[in-house]
User: What shape does this take?
Amino acid sequence: MNLLRRPLLASIGAMIGWKPSSAKEISPASGEETVTQNEVEESSVTPRHVLCFLGKGRDLSPLSDAASQAIRDFATGFSIDEDYSQAEPDDRMSQSFAVCWDRVEADAWSPADEDAVADHQSVLYVLGPNMAQAETVKVSMLALRFVERLIDAGAVAAKGESAGIAHGLDRWRELIRQGAEVVKAADSLAQQRIGRLAFAKRPLSVPGYLESVGFHLVGLPEVYVPETAGSERQIVAIMDAVADEIAQQGLEPTLKERRASLSFDSTYEPDEFKFNPYGIVRLPK
Assistant: This one.
């Protein structure tokens, strides 16, 4: 696993209309809230998906037409970003995808995927709706269907800008298949898990910890694990286990069992796509 430091993970665009306030930290010992300078009102910030698709030709209409049809068919609230979409290549894409490829799943992308990014001729951005926490899993499953529709229409590469995560086409297809199965089974916990695998990035390095980015897209706080807790792969397994525990039993029991704290003192600004309004679960060192 090739670990990335967070400053390398950049995305295009910014959230509009989010205002900073301050942050709270809940002690695992006392349960009391302590206030820090960067507190943000949870209700003032809602996550959204931003999807990037690359086309093989300079005619954007195959992708934009497919996106428009998907919006009519099932993706209510999604929209094409006319400001950043372009019928020409973007010379930043090779570098952007290079830092966004999923480094957890084996064979998450291939040299053919890298070549497709390098040779792309057009870029389409799609904005998802601002999501209430209770709607995040449902909308993330719709975002996965959106990726399927655009790949079928000829997209040669796709990534989620909200967390800075990219998969190769074969891996996207596998996630799409898994997503369709758990939606058909009405398994909400499995849907949340697939949504994390598809649209969250982990691990990234911050001083003293490895972190997740993008768990807010399925309604969960981020998870920070001390870098001394094991190998990178072991730490990713801990992140995923904590996320599953929160989904299954709730936040407070997980904090208690893990002796963890919940903090809203994010190092991301509230107007950044990666800002998580549900906070950060920080495991003890």
Q: What stands out?
A: The first strand starts at residue 4 and ends at 5. The chain has eight helices and 13 strands. Residues 7-43 have pLDDT under 50 and may be disordered.
